[in-house]
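Extended Data, panel c. Modelled sequence:
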Amino acid sequence: MNKGSKIATRFLLVWLLMFTLVTGMYGQQQRFPKPEFESGYAQPHTLTPEPRSTAMEWLDVAVLTAVMALSAWFVLCKRSRQGILWLSVFTLLYFGFYRDGCICAVGSLQNVALSFADPSYAISVTVLLFFLLPLIFSLFFGRVFCGAACPLGVIQDLIIVKPISMPSWLRKTLGLIPYIYLALALLFAATGSDFLVCRYDPFVGIFRMDAPFLMTILGVAFLLTGLFIGRPYCRFLCPYGVLLNWTSTVSKWHLTITPAHCIRCKLCTTSCPFDAIDRPTDPKVIKGSHDGAKRFLVYALLIPVWMAAGGFVGFKAHIRLSKANPDVYLAELLITHPEVKKDRDNIDVQTFLSSAKTMDQLVEEARGIRRKFKYGSTAAGAFIGLVIGMTLLNQVIFRRNEDYVPNNGACFSCGRCMDFCPVERKS
């Protein structure tokens, strides 16, 4: 392992440790802050900004559509990195600091999940469009949303100073995290427990200038890491990026490094800070590709085993996971520690006792939610098992590349690589 790879590994290990500590500590806080009666009531911070008029919501949809359309035009027609850059600055100012980072397509997947799981939850058309439009664009033009329309992505993209290439094994290992995060985010949203993506968004507090201290530290840690490891949140955590990866893989039109025939000058090999350029296939690999047939068959047959194992782990974890739901947690707390009813400082308990809801009703609701977790966590575990199985299978799938080409799924359509190609466009 070279020096750059070692530095990248250390950066990512520190980042993962910090994320685990911050989310763990932040998640243990009481759901409602204890009011300061001595100094007067203070309005608590909220996870979402003030409601926006319907007309302004449609304006946001129009701006999002226009930005992605311009991004596709800059990438496919003008081949202009500078155009993408200025578009990114606009996105950061508008969707980031002006719109407070909300609503964003990344968080909208939770609204969609909850609307499917809970018939009483009505999702607005504008939120649905924020979820669908980037996916539709990526089916045709690649991840132009990531390149210039996502404030979470562009804030990282604009601060890259000296990107370090990461070893393949580390990228693939960390690449499993977004799938796990996606499964958990959908599970918690569908059960009405929490919107994990919004709660642990490392940049939204920076956009609003009012994040809790721990989340501010996490956001700064991502940005500092992003100086040397391009887009760490996008590549190794973003759950919406999983969906964009899938749709962009089959995109009809996609960014190309060269406007004409590749001359293999190798000038573009170090142009991508995200390691998203696939190299021409080594002839030795082509010659030895036939030897992997047995491994392919074994890995393919193991996929159901991985899914079964993942489903079993998810099933076993559903009781622990369900405690994240406030009703389940409260019911279990009152059953196991009935003396807590006398605790005047526990605002959750006191709020329940002052409501019209009975203990039997609370317990019954908690049982229903835990039942949802049982099926949901089993499905989530099976999905993670499938991802692990497919990741292993991809190690023996042979793909022939004749030239240096962007990986359709991993490419963020930022346009950096285009400026490195000396080939001129044919008129």
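Residues 13-46 have pLDDT under 50 and may be disordered. This feature is highlighted in the accompanying rendering.
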